[in-house]
Amino acid sequence: MADQGIESVLQETRVFIPPSAKDVGGPEWLISSLDQYNEMYKESIDNPEAFWAKVAEDFHWFKKWDTVLEWNAPDAKWFNGAKTNVCYNCVDRQVESGHGDQPAIIWEGEPVGDNGSPVDQRTLSYKELQTEVSKLANALKSKGITKGDIVTIYMGMVPELAIAMLACARIGAPHSVIFGGFSAQAIADRVGDAKSKMILTCDGSWRRGKVVELKKNVDDAIESMGNDSPVESVLVLNRTNCGAPMHTIDSDWATETGAASADCPCEELESEDMLFLLYTSGSTGKPKGIVHTTAGYMLFTATTAKYTFNLVPDTNQTFWCTADCGWITGHSYIVYGLLPNRVPTLMFEGGPDYPTPARFWQIVDRYKVTQFYTAPTAIRAFMKWGDEHPASCDLSSIQVLGTVGEPINPEAWMWYRNKIGRGVCPIVDTYWQTETGGHVLTPLPGATPTKPGSCTLPMFGIDAAVCDEAGNVAKENVGGLMTIRKPWPAMLRGVYGDRQRYIDTYWSTVAKDGEPYYAAGDNTRRDELGNFWIMGRTDDVINVSGHRLGTMEVESALVSHESVVEAAVVGMPHEIKGTGIAAFVTPAPGFEGDDDLIKTLRAHVATEIGAIAKPDMIRFTNALPKTRSGKIMRRLLRSIAAGDINITQDMSTLEDLSVVAKLSEKDEG
Ligand code: WTA
């Protein structure tokens, strides 16, 4: 890619103003220059409390706050003393201000008819959403759910999933959404940890023309927990008619909500009441439940959505984030960050290439999508499938393109801009985490000059820096730890049930004068313009197709199989997934390390965790390479997995890695 190309991208990006904003005379808040961003960013850092108090004026409160921030590192209380409700701010407020008939959620199901048109489409206005959410909230109450009870949601991408999240928020019952691709074992782990009394699920969900039997996984999870199961009731939505058997603790969604009243006032919640738990992978142990609370999360996700995507109500915008609600991206940028901005949010049930690789672009065309937000892994797949698919659709409605989840390679960035963004749409490369709740580094469209591969500058209120462990800021272009030096409203408030893990994981790496800073677990550098470049994780977390996994989770899954004595898992470069999963396995005596065992182990990992965790490559070795002190030589394994060190082409032959290990021991340290 020629430098000149990047230069022209910079210029065009700088002058971009969304046409819709011009139509309404440009809302006053719209950031349209780097100077304007710089000024506002400085205000937000110099005086965060005044900044966020001003933002808070735009939201509904049952009672105003006593203090904006109480910071006792590492514990933050935002808007303490206030009472509010996230569901009220997402839904009721829009109805009450006279916008009840506007579209809130637009949904398309996966199945298509003979003519290729979707069979299921639904648009819910704010008023309809309010009714549906209230009915479900009353149904939850009738099952004994009250404020503080954790409700598990394990569903496909149907509108009822968003309705379920909002119903929980309405009555103050924190939800724990589990991605529909996770296995029965993964459900059992999460439900057990959260001691969740109730599960909301579907009989099945559509995925690439097939039914995924979700209810069966819930049944298996509950059965596997035996007497330890905390689950008292399961509410089942019939989506696919796949005939899921019903048990005594199960009840039917339509029957229960049909019988429920549509009147359910929002619970007046404290700012720091838990809004949800979301399990995510770390470098050790089982996935941890990240705790997010009410007021700060609400303000931050809605504010970042507004600025990052230039959301302007009443201008015919339609926002589409292609993530699943089972991940933080779906929580923050399908549901909670979108609805308060009164721009319709689009939900799609299926895969990007079903029935053809043009499906996403047909959806953009059909609903005139204005903001399109996806992951680099999807963009790389689109590139491979061919330019003719986007070219067959009218994509001229798109104003802003977004990416999230992993670093984007410049080639994919340019393709995205040229083939999807007509060569003019700005790309916002948003860096953030389950723990940060919302965007922490991102360009603002029309203001921030972009460079392919960089997520550029910090969001308002985010005191981001590249630091060493003593909190010293790294020099220009020198790598260091991605650090946030001040609390922000949507920061995680804890790891559910594990205070020490919260402190150890996030607040023990970087400290300045005894004051801990938030360490994100990523390596990064800043260039001469102050742009951040994320360079990869500092821990054993890998990003597979933009999905976060701990290598140790996959190792535990492997060694739980009778044929495995020991296993080591590392990331390896993968053309589409970004990072693939490589497993080095020592088979137990009596087991052959052959193709059959590879198949068995891949299936086993899918059962233990989910299909996303299946190793892309399994190699058998009679012993894992270890240092003299017994540590597995992961750097060496990464080199072997990446093909930098070539030992044998035959994947099913037992390898003796001890020789290579000896040679590399010094290097590994
Ligand atoms: C990575 C997803 C580079 C990073 C929202 C982070 C990124 C982890 C980007 C969080 C990006 C996310 N550029 N890397 N734009 N966005 N990451 O919790 O390693 O699923 O720590 O949240 O994804 O993954 P999580």
Strand order of the largest sheet: 12-11-8-6-7-14-15-23
Low-confidence stretches: 1-17
Q: What's the story with the biggest beta sheet?
A: 8 strands, mixed
| CATH architecture label name of the domain at 541-663 | 2-Layer Sandwich
Named CATH topology of the domain at 541-663: GMP Synthetase, Chain A, domain 3
CATH superfamily of the domain at 541-663: ANL, C-terminal domain
**Helical/strand content category:** alpha/beta
Strand content: 15-25%
What gross morphology would you assign?
A: globular
Radius of gyration from the alpha-carbon trace, in angstroms: 24 Å
Number of helices: 21
Give the proportion of residues in helices.
Answer: 25-40%
Strand elements, count: 32
- What integer is the average pLDDT? 92
Q: What top-tier CATH class of the domain at 541-663 fits best?
A: Alpha Beta
Question: Whole-Å distance between the termini?
Answer: 37 Å
Bound molecules: 5'-O-[(S)-ethoxy(hydroxy)phosphoryl]adenosine
Observed structural traits:
binds 5'-O-[(S)-ethoxy(hydroxy)phosphoryl]adenosine, GMP Synthetase, Chain A, domain 3, 21 helices, 669 residues, 23% strand, alpha/beta
Structure characterization notes:
With 669 residues, the protein is of the alpha/beta class. It has a domain of 123 residues: ANL, C-terminal domain (GMP Synthetase, Chain A, domain 3, 2-Layer Sandwich). 33% of the residues lie in helices and 23% in strands. The strands form 8 sheets. An 8-stranded mixed sheet has the order 12-11-8-6-7-14-15-23, sandwiched between helices. Strands 5-4-17-16-18-19-20 form a 7-stranded mixed sheet, sandwiched between helices. Strands 21, 22, 24, 25 and 26 form a 5-stranded antiparallel sheet that branches. β16, α12 and β17 form a beta-alpha-beta unit. α5 packs across α7 and α6 packs across α7. The longest helix has 17 residues. The chain is globular and about 75 Å long. The N terminus is likely disordered. Bound molecules: 5'-O-[(S)-ethoxy(hydroxy)phosphoryl]adenosine (WTA). The site of 5'-O-[(S)-ethoxy(hydroxy)phosphoryl]adenosine has 22 residues, from α12, β20, β25 and β26.
